[in-house]
Design brief:
It is built from nine helices and eight strands. By secondary structure, the protein is of the alpha/beta class. The protein has an eight-stranded mixed β-sheet, sandwiched between helices. Helix 2 runs parallel beside helix 3, helix 3 packs across helix 9 and helix 4 packs across helix 5.
Length: about 350
Amino acid sequence: MKIKFTALVFMLTFVQTTLANTAEVAVQHFPNPSTVSQALQPLVSGATPFWNDHPKINAEWHQWVDTIAAQTLKTLPTLKERMQVSVTATQLGNVNAFMVTPKTIAPYNQNRILLHFHGGGYVLNPGEAGTAEAIMMAEYGKINVISIDYRMAPDFLFPAAVDDALTAYRELLKQYPAENIGVFGTSTGGGMTLALMLNAKAHDLPLPAAIVVGTPWTDLSKTGDSYFTHEGIDNVLVSYDGWLGDAAKLYAGDHDLKEPLLSPIYGEVNDFPPTLLVTGTRDLFLSNTIRMHLKLRDAGVTADLVVLEGVSHAQYLMVYDAPEAQRYFNEASQFFDQYLAN
């Protein structure tokens, strides 16, 4: 009996100590990662100032979105100059878009095109404010990119954005064979890329040659380990319970957040094209990305995963010449080059 009692005391002590350590970790302030590049070091401390904003009515959402977009638009002239690209407003079908053309197009990319969807939680980055990733991809990849200015909440709820994505893709198929098309995006743009694959399959459209999804929003519900373990560690999104969760519910309207065209992790992914997924070790969407990677692999899809050290959500896009940005765009460009036909 004494041995059994001693063992029980040990087990209780172990559990109590583990719980205490777990609670301590939950409130721990981790040091800035010295393993990220010097270029990103200024970004890894502090938090996005608007992460905990909660607009209520449509007018508040519009004001909030316009304020953030205005700051982004100020940065684009310098970015376009550095990247040596031109950006021209256009349309695909009846969907607004921007054609991003690099100064030099690689010979093997002359007959290729990339379709881009911007991030922003289905509310942020309207108009040209959503083109930064497309601008960088065009220059890094030496390829034409068309970025879709899809309709967003609060004015247009689900399925407006995915409808626009499908319309734009249909129109692009009139100009390019599917094997010459690549599709990409980060965050919401990554989620929309995956949703487009589901939607294109449902409409019996040929799928593109390859897709690249950076830290994709694959689950609009608060499901997945990193929504909890990375809360307050990711200094970009910070928490699902900030503006992000509000935006998910706003865009979804009366629809279940787990509908596949909202949350592609719940869709049927057989026959998806080769997919490159990118995330970071501090990313709130780490689980979103890993769960999708595993689901694709389980379905027999070619799926590669890159996890960037010390990087919070989409931080690899925030300094155009940082090593993390170079890795993302070079990996993506090489991936497209591997699978797109000439």
